[in-house]
Amino acid sequence: MGIYEELGVPRIINAMGTYTIYGGSKMSSQTLQDMEDAASSFIDLNLLQKQAGEAIAGLTHNEAAYVCNGAAAGVYLGLLAAVAAHRGKKIRYLTRQDFQESEILVFRSHRSPYDIVMEQLGVSITELAYSNHSLPCPKEDMDAAISHRTAAIYYLESGWVAPGAPSLTETIDTAKRHRLPIIMDAAAMLPPTANLWNYTKAGVDLVVFSGGKDLKGPQASGLIVGRKTLIDLLLESAFPKHGYGRFLKVGKEEIIGLYSAIKQYLTLDQEAQIQNAEDQVKLACQMLNTHPGYHALRSYPNEAGQPIPRVLINLLDQTTDAKTILQYLSHCTPPIIASPAGHHSLYLNPMTLTQKEMVWICKQLLQYRPPTT
User: Are residues 58 and 75 in the same domain?
Assistant: First the structure.
């Protein structure tokens, strides 16, 4: 009996993707081995954070890097550093008034459940642009919204972003003219690998990635890369120091685990990874299209905007809906989770599947029979 079985938690086949609620991704044996090694000794955590950051910065062609405990924490810490720089103080000297008198510029179409960290930080939020095409946001609108109180621009890079915001290029241009930092949430924007340095090379000051998605590091890890002056502020005042970042604890195991995972990630054959996904999609379509109730086709990119294909299954029998099929899959042994794509459609994401698992899912779908009335 495994540890999950001891707790009565079934292992599942994940056809959704690297969602946090289902465990993010799977770590490699090398990452687990390095984390076990890290857990077996005492070290100076301040020195480890500094040395690991410098090593990761070198690997990812950035000025500096900082390992935190998740992408949401990374956004919080990035904005914290931006406020400190704006107020001309070290983080530990910031007061409640400093936060209240600092504004973060955010585009309405970039709002998400994760940016609640801005409210937790205590800054004011200036929203700009509507979430549609009817009233685009020109540079003049950004210029008008920026004041002496503006500490940073928050920019969300994601496949879920609604229209309405200016392009990243336009935003970078405006930020540079006003000497404002851009803090980017790019939690799921890997692959491609080059995103680890492309955003910062384009002019973004700090970029935040999840450590537990395609990097396949510990789920409770995140990565901040970018401008050294801002990350130096974090090294002075964030965990393991006392103060505003203390509660965002990242252990020696997560730091080493993410460092190990990044080293491995940079040696991966990304083209082979994408080809594996293409092969799975092609195989699934061939299998499922033998069933009169399904029309399966390739969908691209995936739900997070990553350059990876997935399977879109349209249900031809209008008496059967996606909810029913998803419930059926969830009761298989082992349970299968997949994403709805509307009332009569669903997705299968090969990103978190082996070819064997994709075949098994398709076999379960081919065996499905609607309940008789």
Answer: yes
